[in-house]
Amino acid sequence: MGFAKTQQYTTDDIYALPDGKRSEFIDGQIYDMAPAQREKHTFKQKHLKVCLFILHELRSPGIR
C-alpha cells in the first residue's frame, strides 16, 4: 500500500488564483491562509494594548 500522490504546483498556479485569495506557496504546495484582520478589529487590538500598558505602568512601583 503506497502513499497518496500529492499534486505539485508551480508559481504559475499561484498567480492563477483569484484576486484576494490569500494563499502561501511552500515547496510546491499551495496552502490557504486566514483572511486579513478587519480594520476595526486591528484598531481595538492596538487600543487594548495601550490601555494595558498604561494600567501596568500605573500599578508598577518604580522610580518616577
Key features?
two-stranded antiparallel sheet; about 10% strand; about 60 residues; alpha+beta; 2 helices
Describe, in plain words, how this protein is organized in 3D.
The chain is an alpha+beta fold and 64 residues long. It contains two helices and two strands; from the N terminus they run αββα. It has helices spanning 11-15, 39-59; strands at residues 23-26, 29-32. It has a two-stranded antiparallel sheet with strand order 1-2. The model has no long low-confidence stretch (mean pLDDT 82).
Give a quick rundown of the structure:
This protein has 64 residues and is of the alpha+beta class.
Q: Which descriptor suits the 3D outline? A: elongated
- By secondary-structure content and strand pairing, the structural class works out as alpha+beta
Radius of gyration: 22 Å
With helices defined by DSSP (H or I, 4 residues minimum), what is the helix count?
2
Oligomer: single chain
Uncertain segments are: none
Query: What string gives the helices and strands in order?
Result: HEEH
How far apart are the first and last residues' alpha carbons, in Å?
Answer: 71 Å
Average pLDDT level: 82
Number of strands: 2
Q: Indicate the percent of residues in helices.
A: 40-55%
Residues in β-strands, percent = 5-15%
Give the spatial strand order of the biggest sheet. Answer: 1-2
Largest β sheet strand count, sense and barrel closure: 2 strands, antiparallel
